[in-house]
Amino acid sequence: MLTVNNITKRFPGVLALDDVSLCIEAGKVTALIGENGAGKSTLMKILSGVYPEYEGTLVWKGQPVRFTNTKDAQQHGIAIIHQELNLIPHLSVAENIFLGREPLTRLGTVDKKAMFRETTALLQKLKLNVSANARIADLKVGQQQVVEIAKALLTNAELIIMDEPTSAITGSEVDVLFGIIEELIRENKAIVYVSHKLDELFRIADHYVVLRDGKSIESGSMQGVTQDVLIQKMVGRKIELLRKQTEDTPDEVPTLRVENLTLRNPRKPADSLLKSISFQVGKGEIVGIFGLMGAGRTELLECLFGLHHKNLTGTIHINSQEITVKCPADAIRAGMALVPEDRKKDGLVLGMDVRTNISLTLLKELENWGTIPIGRVTKLAKKYIQELSIKTPGDGQKAKNLSGGNQQKIVLAKWLATNPLLLLLDEPTRGIDIHAKSEIYKLIIELAAQGLGIVVVSSELPEILAVSDRVLVMSEGKMTANIKGCDATEDAILKAAIPKSIYEN
Amino acid sequence: MKTETQKLATPARPLEMNVRFDKAQLLRFQSLIALFLLCLALTMLSDKFLTVSNLWNVLRQISVNICISIGMTLVVLTAGIDLSVGSILALSGAITAGLLKNGIELPTQNLFIGFTILGAILVGILCGTFLGALNGISITRFKVPPFVATLAMLTVARGLTMLWTGGFPISSLGDTFLYLGAGWFLGIPVPVWITTVLVLIAIFITKKTRLGTYIYAIGGNESASRLSGINVKRVKIIVYSIAGALAAIGGLLVTARLDSAQPNAGISYELDSIAAVVIGGTSLSGGRGSIIGTVQGAIIIGVLNNGLVLLDVSPFWQQVVKGLVILLAVIIDKANSSDE
C-alpha cells in the first residue's frame, strides 16, 4: 500500500534518517520500533506531510507522492494520531471531529444536525458510548483517543499512524482500542503502530520494522520473534565506553541520599508519579538514570529541585544533612544545580546576552553596594566562555543567536558558577550535534573527577552507558534496577525499563 | 593563503559594518527622530509652539504621565500590566489632600490628628504602595491574571476615592503644597525636577541593580528565572508596589498643581501611560524595553497633545490622531523586531 524507498532526512548537523526503506501493507498492523532518537518520529512526520523535504521517494498505492503539508497527506488518506491528543477540551465531540471541515447548510450556517448524525454513526461504529454533544473535557483519556480515531476515519483515512496510543490509558481501555484496531484491519485499512511497549506489539502487530540510528535495521513478521530478539535488534551496537568505572567507596558520606521519595499526582490523588524512590550519589560519582517516556525521570529531578514540594513525601540528604527544598533557591543553597531538559523553555533567557545568562544564578554574590559591577559579570562570563570553549562572538551576544550546543554550555556555565556539590543533568545532549555531545561528555567526566556528584537523566541508552558509574532504571514511577556501570548492558537496562503494568490491571 | 584571504576581506568588512551600524543607530533613535520631526512640523505650523513658556508647560504636563509610566514600564517588562494606576493616583492625591486639610478626627476618643505636609505626603505614597502590593499579591499568590487583578483594583480604588471625598473636590491646600505642582526651582518647574530625579533612579535600577536584571529576566523567561533561584513572586510584588508608589507621586503632582484633589482625577491615565510605554518600544510580552524609551514615548504623546491643541484641532479628532500614532508606533516596532 505504501512503500518507503531510500529516504534520507538531514537536519543541520544530524542525519535523522539514513536510507530508510520499508513497506506497509493494507489490512495489517505494522509495528515501528526503536529507541528514542532512532528516527521514528522523523519518519512519521515525513509520512504525514510535516516535513516535505527529504531525499528518496514515497510510493502510495502505486503512485510516487510527495506530501507538501499535513492537509495534503490527509487528502491522500493518511492520518496520524499523535501521542499528545489534538482536541479542544471545551468543544463537543462532534465539533472536534468536524473541526476545520464543518458541513454547511444552504444558508451558510454550520449544519449541526448533519454533524450530530454523522458523529453518532461514527461513534456507534467505534462502540464509544458517549453523546456526540458531550464535551471533550468530560471524557476519559481513552475515550478521547477514540474520538481522535473517529476524526481520522472521517477523512476516509486508509493508513492510520498511531504514536504511543496507550501511553495514557489503562488496561480495559487498551482492550477497547485493540478491538477497534482489529475492526479497522478487517476493513482493509493499514495501521502503523509506534510503541515502546513490546508486549502490546505482540498482541496486535503483524509485522515489525526496527529503526536504529536513523537506519531501517530489519523488518519481518512478528510471528517467530521474541521480545529478547527485538530488544537486541533495537540496541545491538557496541558502545564506546568513555569511562572506566571507579572502585566502590562505601564508607564515604554520599553527596546525595534520597529515601522513600513519593510524589502524589495532584490530579489523581490515588495515583503516584514517583513511588518510594531511594538512591544515593557518592562524591565524584556519575549516576545515570534511564527510563522510557513517562517513567518519572524528569519529575524526580524536579522534586529534588523543589518544584513539587506540596505533593512530595520522603527525605533528601546532602552530605548527610537532611534538607527541606521548597523552591529552587533552597536547592541552590543546599548545593544543587539543575540543567533542565528544555533549555529554551527552562534554561536560558534567550533574549538576554550571554554574560547575564551566565551570571543570573550568582547576581547576589556579584553585587557590590547595591549595584552589579559589569566588570565582575564580564570576568565571570569570560572565564566560563574560555573554560567550556563556548563559541560566541562575545559575552554581549544574545543567547538565542548561539547554536544548541553552545547554549547548553551556557546553561552548564551558569550552574558551575554556583560551585555546586551535586549536578543534576536532564537530557544534557538533547538536540545538539555529535561534536558538542562528546565535549559535554568529557566535561561531565572531568567535573566528576573534581569531586562533583553527578546525576545524568537520559532517554538515550548509549549516553547513559557512556558516562555512568552506576545506572538506575525507572519505570512507571518506580526504581526497577540499580546496576553497576561495569555490569550494565543495554539488554538488562531496557528489560527493567519496559513497563509491566499492562497485564497487572 | 591566510594573509591573502584576510587582505581580500579587509576592504569589504568596514563597509558592511558601517551599513549595519547606521541601521542599528537609526532604530535605536527612531522615537527621537519621530519626536524631532514632530517638533519641526509644529514649529512651522504654529508660532506658539516653540516658545519658552509653552515648552515648560508641555514638560510640566507630561511629568505626571512620565511618573506613572516609569512604574508601568517596570510592570510591562515583567510581562504584566497595571490598569489601576489612574485610580490609585486619585485615591493617594485625595488622601494627602484630606489629611492636610482636615486631619483625622476620632470623635469617640475625642482625638484629633493633624498632619504636616511631609506626613500627609508620606501617608499618600504609602497608601499607593500598599495598593500596588495588593495587586502584586493577588497576581502572584492567587494567580489572578494581571489584567484582571489590576482592573479590579481600578474599580476598588476609585470607589474608595469617592468614599473618602464624598464625591467632592478637596481644595485650598496651602501655598507650600501648591509649590510642589506649580512652583519653579532654579528656573525649572518643580514637577519636572521631581520626575527627572525619579527617571534617573529608575534608569539606575534597571541598568545597574540586581532587581533590574531580575525584572528583565522574569519578563524574558519566567520559568528559567525561577529555576535559577530567583524569587519571582517577591520581585513581582516589589514591581507592582513601585508602580503603586509612583502612581501616588503622580497623584501628589496633579493635586498640587490644581491645588485641589478631584475625585475624578486620573481617569484613563493608565491608557496614556501604556501608550507611552508601547511607543517607547517596550514589548508587552515582557523582557524588552527601557525607561528612556518610555520617557521619549511620553514626550511624544505630550507634544502631540499640545500641538493638536495649539493647532485648534477638535478634541474628537485629537483622540483619533493619538490612537493612530500608537498603532503606527507599534507596527514600526514589530517590523523592526522581526528583522532580528
From TrEMBL, chain A:
CDD domains: ABC_Carb_Monos_I, ABC_Carb_Monos_II. Keywords: ATP-binding, Cell membrane, Membrane, Nucleotide-binding, Repeat, Sugar transport, Translocase, Transport. It holds the Pfam family ABC_tran. It is a peripheral membrane protein. It is found in: Cell membrane. InterPro entries: AAA+_ATPase, ABC_carbohydrate_import_ATPase, ABC_transporter-like_ATP-bd, ABC_transporter-like_CS, P-loop_NTPase. Residues 2-238, 256-501 form the ABC transporter domain. SMART domains: AAA. Coiled coil: none annotated. One of its GO terms (molecular function) is ATP binding. GO terms for cellular component: plasma membrane. PANTHER family: CARBOHYDRATE TRANSPORT ATP-BINDING PROTEIN MG119-RELATED, D-ALLOSE IMPORT ATP-BINDING PROTEIN ALSA-RELATED. This is Ribose import ATP-binding protein RbsA. The gene is rbsA.
Automatic annotation (TrEMBL), chain B:
It comes from the Bacteria. Pfam families: BPD_transp_2 (PF02653). It is a multi-pass membrane protein. The keyword Endoplasmic reticulum does not apply. One of its GO terms (molecular function) is transmembrane transporter activity. Its main location: membrane. The chain crosses the membrane at residues 26-45, 66-91, 111-134, 146-165, 177-205, 237-256. Keywords: Cell membrane, Membrane, Transmembrane, Transmembrane helix. It is found in: Cell membrane. GO terms for cellular component: plasma membrane. PANTHER family: ABC TRANSPORTER PERMEASE PROTEIN YPHD-RELATED-RELATED (PTHR32196), RIBOSE IMPORT PERMEASE PROTEIN RBSC (PTHR32196:SF72). This is Ribose ABC transporter permease. It comes from Persicitalea jodogahamensis.
